[in-house]
User: Which sequence fits this backbone?
């Protein structure tokens, strides 16, 4: 796919995740299926954090793969969403028309070997500037950041308008599905999925970044079982907040609230009504009559501590799960979530991302848990 690397993409994602709540004081998806390109009916675009028109394009692209690569197995919208999340943040900042056309067009750095965007190898123009507006050197184009030469080889007319363009969401998604499927990969097999993503950008850090998104989108289609009693009350209270915005310093025992200024990423919580990670935990546990401290690090000191060394299998639904720079030092904890079971958690991830279900492995620095019930 692309022969240039984006610098810092994974690092930026992880940095954004680490600043969740260290400051002072839906989901209607049905059970997912590996054999279904839709991953189940009733997908909530808002809960997924994907613009509805882009989600429609991913569904379109996945559903058409049988016509283009009949031997391919396991293609689903979550895979396409995982790629587009990294490549363009789902065409963020652009307008997507009913027909799927994206304006203004998305073009990457000029691949002239200058080092911009991480490219050190010059790639001469192959499309006469047709898609990238550059008649001397190539630029990656569209929400899936195809090189023009690659798009000519794999491009498909996803919306049936007799025009094939990398700047059309349906065309780009269908073309990405064809590219990832190759000669007939089984993308339900994790090793083959990793290999397919690696052909898209030959960086294993990139592969891990894309897979983290796929894992989260997969989790959206899997409704957790709600236990009974106080544990169920905590989980139900947290699940009911899905889609509520992240607010730095926001949330209390009564529910979402405005927060404080300002997160390391610059969010002024005073302008947003919602939750940060510890605010969500505080609210959910208040519904079971438990008063938690305000910050994630302080919450780690309440209840029966479950060390990171015990592994994820030691967790039970309703436990708090923590993330920190040093798994054995609670003062380094920067994020907290509520464990749902089956490897999932509900949390307020970071500024710009609403309360949602994520895999526990979405963050790399698991620091154990706490059991309060």
Assistant:
């Amino acid at each position: 796919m692309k022969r240039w690397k984006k610098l810092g993409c994974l690092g930026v994602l992880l940095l954004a995740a680490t600043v969740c709540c260290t400051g002072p004081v839906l989901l209607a998806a049905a059970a997912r299926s590996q054999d279904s390109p839709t991953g189940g009916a009733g997908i909530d675009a808002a809960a997924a954090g994907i613009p509805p028109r882009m989600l429609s394009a991913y569904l379109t692209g996945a559903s058409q793969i049988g016509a283009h690569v009949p031997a391919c197995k396991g293609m689903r919208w979550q895979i396409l969403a995982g790629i587009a999340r990294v490549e363009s943040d789902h065409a963020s900042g652009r307008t997507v028309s009913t027909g799927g056309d994206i304006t203004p067009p998305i073009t990457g750095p000029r691949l002239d070997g200058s080092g911009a965007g991480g490219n050190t190898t010059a790639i001469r123009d192959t499309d006469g500037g047709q898609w990238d507006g550059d008649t001397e050197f190539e630029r990656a184009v569209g929400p899936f950041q195809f090189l023009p030469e690659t798009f000519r080889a794999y491009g498909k007319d996803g919306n049936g308008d007799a025009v094939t363009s990398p700047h059309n969401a349906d065309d780009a998604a269908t073309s990405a599905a064809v590219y990832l499927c190759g000669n007939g990969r089984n993308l339900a097999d994790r090793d083959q999925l990793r290999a397919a993503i690696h052909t898209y950008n030959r960086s294993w850090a990139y592969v891990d970044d894309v897979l983290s998104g796929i894992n989260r989108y997969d989790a959206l289609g899997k409704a957790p079982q709600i236990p009974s009693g106080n544990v169920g009350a905590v989980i139900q209270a947290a699940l009911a907040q899905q889609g509520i915005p992240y607010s730095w310093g926001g949330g209390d025992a009564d529910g979402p609230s405005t927060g404080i200024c300002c997160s390391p990423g610059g969010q002024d919580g005073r302008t947003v009504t919602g939750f940060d990670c510890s605010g969500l935990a505080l609210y959910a546990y208040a519904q079971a009559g438990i008063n938690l401290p305000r910050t994630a690090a302080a919450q780690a000191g309440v209840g029966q501590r479950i060390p990171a060394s015990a592994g994820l299998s030691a967790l039970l639904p309703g436990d708090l799960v923590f993330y920190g720079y040093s798994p054995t030092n609670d003062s380094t904890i920067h994020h907290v979530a509520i464990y749902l079971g089956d490897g999932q958690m509900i949390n307020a991830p970071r500024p710009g991302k609403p309360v949602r279900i994520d895999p526990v492995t979405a963050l790399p620095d698991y620091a154990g848990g706490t059991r309060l019930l």
Summary: The beta strands are 95-96, 102-103, 257-258, 273-274, 304-306, 320-324, 333-341, 344-347, 356-359, 366-371. Confidence is low (pLDDT under 50) at residues 2-20, 22-42. Residues 348 and 355 are 4 Å apart (CA to CA).
